[in-house]
Write a structure and sequence with these properties.
Blueprint: E1 2-5, H1 11-24, H2 33-36, H3 41-48, E2 53-60, E3 63-73, E4 76-87, H4 97-111, E5 115-121, H5 125-133, E6 137-142, E7 154-160
Parallel strand pairs: 4-5
Antiparallel strand pairs: 1-2, 2-3, 3-4, 5-7, 6-7
Helix pairs in contact: 1-3
Length: about 170
């Protein structure tokens, strides 16, 4: 397995896997296939990499099998948000999400963030287990209408980076 930081030149790979994720798991992401399938090349380049975000691509030899992202919180310069994690079904249950969490944690530290946050649909048990296994603590729950039309709570978590006090 190899994890690679995406660049804007990886936009086609990112687009392909992101759209696969949105089609195959329409109820677990904060966006939808209908919304992102019409993005043009410039939008995908921006989505793939930027000064305040990172996307990581996971390969099994030369096969792209997953992706994950992290970006600066729009309202809190001390916080980064973990987003868009997806593994192809054949690779789930192998604890590969640990690679995603470690890469995002390392990136956040390098960028000077003091806190990571992540959210997921209440019924997304694999995400809950992965978050908690990596040390994230639940902070709150909010009602949410997902892109598949289901109303279900979104659970939010945070991870304070070592050496930093609560609140930054």
């Amino acid at each position: 397995m190899k994890l690679q930081l995406a660049t804007q030149d990886d936009w086609e790979l990112v687009r392909t896997l992101r759209l696969e994720a949105l089609q195959s798991e329409p109820g677990v992401f904060g966006s939808s296939y209908a919304r992102e399938s019409v993005y043009d090349e410039a939008q995908w380049r921006t989505w793939s990499a930027g000064p305040s975000k990172a996307v990581f691509l996971l390969y099994d030899d030369t096969s792209l099998i997953g992706l994950t992202g992290i970006l600066a919180h729009p309202n809190d310069p001390t916080t980064a948000m973990c987003i868009a994690s997806y593994l192809k079904p054949a690779y789930r249950g192998q604890k590969l999400s640990r690679l995603f969490y470690q890469a995002r944690l390392d990136w956040a530290r390098e960028q000077g963030f003091t806190r990571l946050v992540v959210g997921h649909r209440a019924s997304n048990t694999p995400s809950m287990r992965a978050n908690q296994a990596f040390g994230f603590q639940e902070t709150h729950r909010e009602p949410h209408t997902w892109h598949d039309g289901t109303e279900e709570q979104e659970i939010y978590y945070e991870l304070l980076l070592p050496g930093h006090a609560v609140g930054g």
